[in-house]
Design a protein that fits this description.
The structure holds two protein chains of two kinds. Chain A is an alpha/beta fold. Chain A has 20 helices and 15 strands. Classes of the chains: A alpha/beta, B alpha+beta.
Amino acid sequence: MGADAEPRARRNEFLPPTAFSDARRYVLLPFRFRHLKSESDYTLVTSETGEFTCVPRDLLVPLVAGQLAPDSPYRLDLEAKSIITSDAGLAITVRRLASQYRARKSFIFEGPSLVLFVVTLRCDHSCHYCQVSRRSEFAPDFDMSEVDALAAVDRLFEMPAKNITVEFQGGEPLLAFERVRQIVLEISRRQASSAKRITFSMATTLHHATPEILEFLKQYDFSVSTSLDGPPEIHDRHRPTPKRDSHARTMAAIDRARLALGACSVSALTTITREALKHPEAIVDSYVAAGFNSIFLRPLSPFGFATRTEGKIGYPMKDFLAFYARALAYMLELNAKDTSISEAYAAILLTHIFTSQSSGYVDLRSPQGAGSGTLVFNYDGGVYPSDEARMLAETGNASLRLGNVHTPFDELMAAPALRLLLEAGIAEIQPGCSDCAYLPYCGADPVATIARTGAPIGHTLSSAHCQRHMGLFDLLFDYLIAGEARTVETLRSWVPSHR
Amino acid sequence: MESGPQNRSVSRLVDLSLVGLPAVQRAGYALAEHYDVVLDRRAGGFVELSVAQQAGGPAPPAAPELDRLLLDFALRVDIEERTREVRSAIVSAALRNGR
């Protein structure tokens, strides 16, 4: 390469003088907005790819009309956040936004990467809020057969995704541990000659985790998630066992699992009932006392037995949001006192807010993740696009069943039920969602809409999904925009890439 | 726009040359979360937006609040129309290069 060739190439990167001739002109980029409640004169604006900033409410009209003054103190920030750009910078900006958009939607090209094996519907708990319609511990005919398990593994290896998480669920999956073992061994045998990277997880009470089982889980590098609903008086009330000792057994099992698998491989979530709404601080304290540095505060699911007991244990979403706000404030207070505790769902939402990465969370995607991100192999051989879809089937609506484990993967993906979900599951074209400032971070939930209304498209704004997420995003953005620097720093630290 | 508050209901006569029908429809959709909403086409390029309280539901918003809501939706439609081509370019480029 000659000495003068390189400088000439660099000079070509500068824009021509005409690009700087009219500083008043700018190009409007797609954005959405929402007026903030805590800062009533200010408006949150979010770009197509989720970058955000805050502007005075009366700036919106001149901004859209192309009348923002060149010396406006907000202009540089709006350019940096991809709300506006210059004529000359448009092509570069579009390329940058396309790159961010592609990263956010990268899951589209992967296919299902979370596969649930419901190895049994049996469980020894009789939780009031059970969403999976469990059967009693000794009930016959509710375990996955060996033949169906092997066929499901065949389907797994037909999937295009290179990285797949296999999650065992129930009922209580450890009541059918031999089936779990068979599936893991078969996957591991076949994985050796495949390019796939498969990881294992399990949702379990852990009560039946013997030393031998824990040794097996350790050998195959399992992560386990259990249910801990807070202090004993709350946990035992909603998770009854014949001996009414669920909390004590759960705590003992968590200790054993941590010893065997390592503390990082054991997590817990809490399901919030009407009674639990009164005790946010006590629930958080119980997690801190149990040595967890994360808690997942999950509202009641509108599926399974929870639909029948809703009158007794249910509540309006606004009550959950008030509970959540108190719990989050308390967690931030604890963090300020150097007790590290995060809320797992807030961490997912913050990941969507602060990064262009796809978080991997299939329940908050657009296009929706049921079937396209998840597949469920049910104990009876049925294949469903999501856990919620099979829960719906257990309560009598099997319309979302894609086929059975003997149906080739390509045929499962072409099932009319999946087409229905995909057509209804694009938030960008959903009434209500398309106008929402939180759209880049949120997702469509047609399975829940079907459960609620019988149709895949309903009145979005009235749905529990929308009300929950609007409330959670409002709360988080209140902290991010009006909160103290230390609070914002704590919330940012919950995002995996910021740790 | 004119106001016509009645018993726990509010109606606004919207000049469609100022606030387009898509914006009125989207505002009505958003209001339907809490209220009974009726859109009624009127002669001369107007539409009447009526917002009524549901049994046990909250009282409808005051007229100025309703006007602000309509203007917000008019702005959203305006942004969408002004940026349609750029959005299409972004999404097309993203999906084209994702393969």
